[in-house]
Design goal:
single chain, about 150 residues, mainly beta, three-stranded antiparallel sheet, 10 strands
Length: about 150
C-alpha cells in the first residue's frame, strides 16, 4: 500500500422538524472511510469495540445496539460489507478486563467512500462519547484517530 493512506470522516446529523429528509434519516452519524490514492479495491475490516454494558444483535442487514432502557442506535454498514459480531475483551482501566462484543464490518475499500450510518434511537438530544475519550459535538471531524474506534 505504498502511496495509499486511510482517511476517516465523521459527520453528525440532527433531527429537524422542518425537513422531511432529515426526519427520515434521523439523528446520528455518518462515518466515511476511504483509501486515498488507491484505485483498486483492497480487503479491509472496520471494527467498533462496544462497551460491556450494551447488547449487540443483528437485525436483517443492520446491527442494533441496546442498553438498559432499550434501543440505543442502529448501525447500517456500507453496501457490500459483511457483518460479524466477535467476542473480545475491553479494558476500562489498567489491569481490568471485561468480556465484550466487537462489531466487525468486512468488505473492500478503494478510493471510493464507504459510509457507515449510525442512527440514534428515540429523542436523545446529545450523545457525546463515541469511543475511548474522543468527544464529538455538532461539527464535522476529519481523520479521526483509529484508537477511538478500535
Amino acid at each position: 500500500m505504498v502511496g495509499c493512506r486511510r482517511a476517516r470522516r465523521l459527520l453528525q446529523t440532527f433531527r429537524c422538524s422542518s425537513c422531511s429528509t432529515h426526519q427520515a434519516r434521523g439523528a446520528g452519524f455518518f462515518i466515511d472511510d476511504q483509501l486515498v490514492g488507491n484505485t483498486r479495491p483492497l480487503p479491509v475490516t472496520l471494527r467498533f469495540l462496544c462497551s460491556p454494558r450494551v447488547s449487540i444483535a443483528l437485525d436483517d442487514d443492520n446491527i442494533v445496539v441496546g442498553g438498559q432502557r432499550g434501543l440505543l442506535c442502529r448501525i447500517e454498514p456500507p453496501p457490500g460489507f459483511a457483518i460479524d459480531i466477535a467476542e473480545t475483551v475491553h479494558s476500562q482501566r489498567f489491569g481490568h478486563l471485561a468480556p465484550t462484543s466487537q462489531i466487525v464490518l468486512a468488505g473492500e475499500l478503494a478510493d471510493d467512500v464507504a459510509t457507515t450510518h449510525v442512527v440514534i434511537a428515540g429523542q436523545a438530544k446529545r450523545w457525546t462519547h463515541l469511543g475511548d475519550g474522543d468527544v464529538v459535538v455538532s461539527r464535522t471531524r476529519s481523520d479521526m484517530r483509529e484508537k477511538a474506534w478500535h
